[in-house]
Design a protein that fits this description.
InterPro entries: DUF218 (IPR003848)
Strand order of the largest sheet: 3-2-1-4-5
Oligomer: single chain
Protein name: YdcF family protein
Order of helices and strands: HEHEHEHEHEH
Pfam families: DUF218
CATH class: Alpha Beta
Helix content: 40-55%
Number of domains: 1
Radius of gyration: 16 Å
CATH architecture: 3-Layer(aba) Sandwich
Structural class: alpha/beta
CATH topology: Rossmann fold
Length: 167
């Protein structure tokens, strides 16, 4: 397990982060309430995009998501989408559909840093445009056992995505 921890640390926890730049849409993947929705909206307020898409795989009456989805700002629009399936692939598929509808050629994907390599791979299988990967700006105080679980989960997710192929 120590080998997985060392490889996982460099592959996932220290994964590549793309430089910040303007994009057609900011796509905030579903996950923990770790500030990701606020971060995506803040980036739009800073002028990096006029579109924010929030993945909403949560319970229908989630008050925090309802608050995010109701944001009205003249500088950008917020769209909330329930991914089908409720996975990273589902999020990449709705991104492809929205991009085709709106003519988007570039997106910024927001998630955990340790999820970025797998999300990049899945999005590249489903979306032909430019993909900028950015992590939620925070640290994670997980136990060693929890990090091992995360590294295993991400690795098995890569294997699953490989066998699913392009969409």
């Amino acid at each position: 397990m120590a080998g997985l921890g060392g490889v996982g640390y460099f592959l996932y926890s220290k994964s590549r982060v793309d430089p910040m730049r303007p994009v057609d849409a900011i796509i905030v993947l579903g996950g923990d309430r770790d500030g990701r929705e606020e971060y995506g909206i803040e980036l739009a307020r800073d002028g990096l995009s006029t579109n924010v898409v929030l993945s909403n795989p949560y319970w229908k009456r989630d008050p925090k998501m309802a608050e995010f989805c109701a944001i009205q700002d003249p500088r950008f629009t917020v769209t909330c989408v329930r991914p089908q399936p409720s996975t990273t692939r589902g999020e990449a598929l709705f991104t492809r559909e929205l991009a085709a509808q709106h003519g988007w050629t570039s997106v910024m994907v927001i998630s955990w840093r340790y999820h970025l390599p797998r999300a990049r791979y899945i999005f590249s299988q489903c979306f032909d445009g430019e993909i900028v990967m950015r992590p939620v700006p925070r640290d994670y105080a997980f136990s060693v056992a929890h990090w091992e679980y995360i590294y295993l989960y991400q690795t098995f997710g890569f294997v699953k995505a490989f066998f699913q192929g392009r969409s």
